[in-house]
Amino acid sequence: MKKTLFSRSFILAVMILTASSFYYLPYYVSKPGMAQDLTEIIEVENGYEENGNFMLTTVSIGRANIYAYLLAKFREYEEILPLEAVKEKDETDEEYNIRQLHYMESSKISAIEVAYKKAGIPVSYRYNGVYVLNIIENMPAENKLQPGDRIFKIDQNTFKTQQEFIEYMSNKKEGEEILITYERDSKTESVKIPIASFPDGSGKVGIGIGLVEDKDINVDPKVKVDTEKIGGPSAGLMFSLEIYNQLTENDFTKGYKIAGTGTINPDGTVGRIGGIEQKIVAADKAGAEIFFAPFENGAKDSNYEAAIKTGKDIKTKMKIIPIDSFDEAIHYLNQLESK
């Protein structure tokens, strides 16, 4: 009898534990991710080889169940984030993932432009339309379009830029109907959608979508950047350094393992990112010798300041270098003695 009671209690406990692991709290947990050699994901056609390597650093982030939440409370360099710190208001998981993948795509394009222009190689763009990032609730596009749809034609009109698209829509009036032609899962579809006023009282009209430009960059020699499902814009600086290094005969790695982070703008400026502490830990574990951190023009709470603090806490031997632009990173590497 006691054995049977124990078995039932054990099974019940297992069921409760299993069920609770699928119950998510209104938080995310971020922790150190990986540091990956960029030669594994970036290939310039007939590019030069390097003796050292540039590394992409990431943060692992996911919704917190009760166990992940409790573990993060007691583990160093794991951070508990409220939903609003990660996702935009009313943003679905699908919309969040699409936004992150778009940020990565934009980061790749900017990195390619910066690197090729620095190497004196011209670039050009091909406009493909706009991607739907999110759908505004109770607006006409709801249940007709989905996040990730690529709109490439409106009323039989194609556009060369996102601005042309926006200007065309701004001339529409409430009650008018437009024909949207879009691509979803490699299939072309069309749907008629009426124009309506936005519910925020702004007086503006539209169909109720958030959008971003979809464009390709054309370069010669060709470059392949395979990021699979890595999201976010924070690898921009390191992408640009790896691409430039493969384009030029001079090896800027000088034989070192060089990690780093930071967004990259088409003009080469480097911007702030999230999770710098976790990225320092990931780079240190991967054996990086140098780490580039956004300096933010010397701001008091810059990524660089947080990186230095974390570096001291974990007693890293990495040199943490403040960077505000692509050119600053190249200047530092030019002064670096080869191994």
UniProtKB/TrEMBL annotation:
It catalyses: Hydrolysis of proteins in presence of ATP. One of its GO terms (biological process) is protein catabolic process. It is an enzyme of class 3 (hydrolase). The keyword Hydrolase applies. Pfam families: PDZ_2. Residues 228-336 form the Lon proteolytic domain. InterPro entries: Lon_proteolytic (IPR008269), Lon_Prtase (IPR027065), PDZ (IPR001478), PDZ_sf (IPR036034), Ribosomal_Su5_D2-typ_SF (IPR020568), Ribsml_uS5_D2-typ_fold_subgr (IPR014721). It comes from the Bacteria. The active site is at residues 234, 279. Keywords: Hydrolase, Protease, Serine protease. Residues 108-184 form the PDZ domain. GO terms for molecular function: ATP binding; ATP-dependent peptidase activity; serine-type endopeptidase activity. Belongs to the peptidase S16 family. This is endopeptidase La. It comes from Bacillus aquiflavi.
